[in-house]
Amino acid sequence: MSDVLELTSVSVVRGSKTLLDKVDWQVNDGERWVVLGPNGAGKTTLLQIAAARLHPSSGTAGILDETLGRVDVFELRPRIGFSSAALASHIPEHENVLNVVVTAAYGVTGRWQEGYERDDERRAFALLNDWGMGPLLNRTFASLSEGERKRVQIARALMTDPELLLLDEPGAGLDLGGREELVHRLAELAGDEDAPVMVLVTHHLEEVPPGFTHAMLLRDGGVVAAGPIEEVLTAEHLSTTFGVDLDVTENAGRYTATARR
Ligand SMILES: Nc1ncnc2c1ncn2[C@@H]1O[C@H](COP(=O)(O)OP(=O)(O)O)[C@@H](O)[C@H]1O
Ligand SMILES: [Mg+2]
């Protein structure tokens, strides 16, 4: 059995719609995955299962040597760092940056009366420094630029020292400079052997950070291809996934796709 993720024939059905269709997926220690697919492909749904936030309608989901449905998810979730737009929308606007990160230790988004340990504050501070946010500790989350918010969210996802880090479209809404900064930092994290196993969801091939080892392509809830990144991110597979005839180039670990005319 795979130690990190082992999905077997996982389906998610809502009414007459199949969001995920018999997905098999194995993620092992040390791997860095990117999940690519067009809007509506089921990427967020897949990540919610991996984050132990959603149960499959059928099939089994093994997460960190536990099986969803047979484990207390409140014990499992702190072992998984998760960042998504939906989660960010729950962060109170006037929360300061340090609190946005430190509250992750308690699985909440607003600081109230929890007794925080100084060690937790030190860890949050160190993570924010790592992500270039040290000078902005006391700013409110609402006052940050989109790029700064994304970095705070990743620092928050890392707060519990997770074994698995899940990032749903961390590059969404960033300008070119912000995207390049994020890709660079994610590439650095990918190269850190002490970093958790990572899964990054995006629909932009340009956001794939160098150093990522594996890729999964999703379309209409089904897996088009999955495996070592250089075998998966080909013109043929990506054209099928996005429904567009694409030329794909790779240069020093960065990928680009352009429509064939
Ligand atoms: N509760 C729901 N009921 C019906 N359809 C849903 C529900 N949640 C999501 N969907 C649909 O499922 C599909 C997959 O959604 P999602 O996982 O968010 O895709 P992605 O993240 O790849 O854009 C989309 O077409 C979406 O509209
Ligand atoms: Mg999504």
From TrEMBL:
Cite the GO molecular-function annotations of the record: ATP binding; ATP hydrolysis activity
| Entry keyword Ribosomal protein | no
Question: Any stretches that span the bilayer, and where are they?
Answer: none
Keywords noted in UniProt: ATP-binding, Nucleotide-binding
Looking up SUPFAM superfamilies in the UniProt record yields: P-loop containing nucleoside triphosphate hydrolases
> What is the name of this protein?
Iron complex transport system ATP-binding protein
Q: Please give the organism.
A: Arthrobacter cupressi
